[in-house]
Amino acid sequence: MFHRCQLSLCSKKDNEFVKNTILCITEGVSAKNNGINMRPRNLAALCKSDYEQNYREQAAVHKIIMKDTTIQMHTTTTFIRSWRFYQPKNSDHCFVTSKSVLEPDYCYSSKFQISNSNSQKEYEKIVRKVVKKAEKDVETLEIDWKTNPEDLKIEKLEKLKYLKIKFWKPESVEFWLSRLNPDIALEEFILQCWEEVLNFEHLAYPSILNASSFFVPENIVMSDEQFLRMSNRKSLYRADTLSSKVLMEFVRKWVDDEIREDFEQLTVWTNKNFVKEIPENLESYNFNAIQYDYARWNIPLYREFFSQFEKFGYYGKFWQISKRNDPFNSISVLVTRKNFVVLRTGFPCFKNGRQDVKLVFPEDILFCNIYV
């Protein structure tokens, strides 16, 4: 029977210790003291040169995941180091499991015990060490905490591209956003803030306002002017303070080629019912717009396309609106009792030798079940 080694291989010292332990066992240590049995392929991994191990395990950290009881970091060489804190029920102690994985070569772990009174201190010590090592290179960061650890210091997250954070307080969010590189727009930003309403000022950083994907299923207090500062390829959020006029101004900007070229989606959830207001505002614009009853659309060619909008609710107003200077490029605009949706759906094509519009519902839209 083979047992997983209970020693971590995250330093040269540990590596030498495990090698010596294996040699000691192979020289005849009694079975009752034999705590290590290695598969041959794992033993071969241990015998790699210290240079190779150092290169693989000390490579740049490109991903960090930190939650209340776990910390995990991934390097560019697929090496993963993790820590898990576990407190048994009715116990005064906490177990910390440290694990090192480099697939398919090895997977080793070590476990130690500390008092509950020291568990938070130990957790924060590991966080500070991981963040210090990774801040200049990390590209993906996922955080799920109530608050930030004390005395956490970060200069700049120079290369960060993907940021997913869950916090109770907006102030904890700002700590991380203020350290983003303003010259790099995030590829993806996901935020949940449990306790308070977010103000636009909490998120007013270039990396966020220009992020490719912006997903914040929280109520953001913003003015009409602040709304127009946002320039995301895809975005979904709640905003109860926006007027129907500024939402139509967004559509006008797309029609007149004033929105980023790769725009795909805008979804605003609101407690305001714009089903009456927006159609009235729409009439004041000289749009090339066609209104459809998407819930009762029966032409077979487009039945599958229109059925996709039912996930936003069955009752609402729907228009297909084309660009002012290009009738073969269009967007779908849906207004229901809870949300305002704009999707890039109409693309130029040729049908029977003539230029036409092909309607395509985006496959990777942002969606949250609170909109139903």
UniProtKB/TrEMBL annotation:
Q: Which InterPro entries match?
A: She-1-like (IPR042317)
The protein's name: F-box associated domain-containing protein
Q: Which domain of life is it from?
A: Eukaryota
